[in-house]
């Protein structure tokens, strides 16, 4: 089966002078099959952010090939990359990046406004509402971000990333601004999406978050140094049950 993401000997070098060149990514080769849930990990300076930019068609490699859904995007110009990115990729960031004076459903509609296809207002609303239903927020469609919790805002961001039916969902530290309980809830959303067949590639520096994924890729000094399947995965529903039980036990102890 053809990988949905295929990186072949990817290099990214900054600087034109050999004496001051910075090799951010060094010969990375990765295949990711449709339906995988992959964590991309590494310390600061490991190259994971640079690699994520290449995967997201936000930057081009200096050398090597990047095939996304069978298309070599390495040589596409900026406009073609932007069109392809909007068609094939969904993005979720650490900051929710929601427009403050815009309702949840209007935030979810935004990617469709940049689609190369003309989409009617009624179709956009229907698709946005369906995406909100997937993440359990259809009843908050008309709420502003200020009226939503952090976890709800991130779920709106996830719905926004799904609205164009992407081949791959890219998540960059999606739990970085959330507390432990809310992080588990959000990882539960990602796990359910993955169970529905959505391919997810998530950048994280948190080992416990990486344990919710199925495969962990680790970068060091721009090189891929580890590619391992996660055998003892955390299942969000189980973890949430443990958190709720711990809260109940704490209340009993405190007498509240």
Describe the structure.
- The protein is α/β, with parallel strands linked by helices and 256 residues long.
- It has a domain of 177 residues: Rossmann fold (3-Layer(aba) Sandwich), CATH 3.40.50.
- 37% of the residues lie in helices and 24% in strands.
- It contains 8 helices and 10 strands.
- It has a 6-stranded mixed sheet, sandwiched between helices.
- Helix 3 packs parallel to helix 5, helix 4 crosses helix 5 and helix 6 runs antiparallel to helix 8.
- The longest helix has 19 residues.
- It is globular and about 65 Å long.
- The termini are far apart.
Keywords:
single chain; 256 residues; alpha/beta; Rossmann fold; 8 helices; 10 strands; 24% strand
Summarize the topology.
Layout: E1 5-14, E2 22-32, E3 37-41, H1 48-55, E4 63-68, E5 71-72, H2 78-88, E6 89-93, H3 104-113, H4 121-134, H5 150-162, E7 168-172, H6 180-195, E8 199-203, H7 207-210, E9 215-220, E10 223-229, H8 236-254
Parallel strand pairs: 3-8, 3-9, 6-7, 7-8
Antiparallel strand pairs: 1-2, 1-4, 4-5, 9-10
Helix pairs in contact: 3-4, 3-5, 4-5, 5-6, 6-8
């Amino acid at each position: 089966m053809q990988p949905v993401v295929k990186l072949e000997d990817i290099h990214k070098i900054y600087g034109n002078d050999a004496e001051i060149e910075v090799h951010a990514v060094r010969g990375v080769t990765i295949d990711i099959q449709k339906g995988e849930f992959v964590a991309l990990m590494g310390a600061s300076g490991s190259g994971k952010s640079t690699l994520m930019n290449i995967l997201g068609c936000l930057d081009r490699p200096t050398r090597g090939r990047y095939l996304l859904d069978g298309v070599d995007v390495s040589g596409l110009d900026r406009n073609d990359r932007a069109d392809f990115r909007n068609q094939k990729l969904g993005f979720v960031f650490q900051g929710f990046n929601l427009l403050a004076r815009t309702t949840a459903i209007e935030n979810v509609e935004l990617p469709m406004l940049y689609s190369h296809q003309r989409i009617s207002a009624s179709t956009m609303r229907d698709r946005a509402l369906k995406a909100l239903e997937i993440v359990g927020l259809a009843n908050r469609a008309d709420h502003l971000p200020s009226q939503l919790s952090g976890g709800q805002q991130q779920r709106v961001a996830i719905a926004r990333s799904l609205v164009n039916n992407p081949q791959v969902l890219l998540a960059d530290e999606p739990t970085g601004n959330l507390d432990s309980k809310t992080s588990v809830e959000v990882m539960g959303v990602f796990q359910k999406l993955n169970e529905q067949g959505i391919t997810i590639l998530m950048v994280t520096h948190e080992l416990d978050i990486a344990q919710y994924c199925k495969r962990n890729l680790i970068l060091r000094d721009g090189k891929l140094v580890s590619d391992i399947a996660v055998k003892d995965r955390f299942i969000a529903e189980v973890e949430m049950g443990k958190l709720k039980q711990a809260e109940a036990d704490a209340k009993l102890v405190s007498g509240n």
